[in-house]
Please model this.
Amino acid sequence: MTVPDPSWSVDDIVAYLRLIGTEENRAGMVRFGINTRTALGVGNSDLRPLARKLKKNHERSLLLWDTGIREARLMAAFTGEPKKLDIGQCRRWAADFDSWEIVDTVADLFAETPFRRELIEEFAEDEREFVRRTAFAILAWSAVHLKKEPDATFRAYLPLVEKHAGDPRNFVRKAVNWALRQIGKRSMALHAPALALAEKLAASSDKTARWIGKDAVKELTDAKQLERLAAGEA
Model:
């Protein structure tokens, strides 16, 4: 097989993924709680360099997703073009989510779309575990990557974090916690309100909210985190 390049079709990519996948990798994925039902056994350390060689291609990414194969769907996220996605496509992909790994990878793509706010609000109210996780994964990625977005945008999401802090499902609670921590680490201006919410949740009578709060308080009061924030403001 030739060296991967942007001209490769979906069939070329899937054939290559089948060639380099291993059972050892599949076994390792299970240990991290990754759904391996359709996995070929290719790790992200191979997928990301492959994506860089294949480059962005919106139409091909849609076809990769439709294969249903774990690695092909990750490649769809890595090589998708957020400005060409429409909200209906995001909803259709979200309906297929069956693993935290897929959610978190695709959420990074969704965070770059112009309708990310609508997705966050809509998905947060969705009762499906992986769809609700998507809302908070998008929020977490947005807090990290969208440097030009005003802090007020993220402050306004703290009530949403509080609203869903009692969802006991593992993949939701971890994403809610992730979003709260990333908001609090974004800037000194956001640190105080995020920490205040974390402390409020840590004192909650609800077991899930208490865990989310205590874990966030621990990170947001870490000396190294505070030094990093202070340095960023200097």
The radius of gyration is 19 Å.
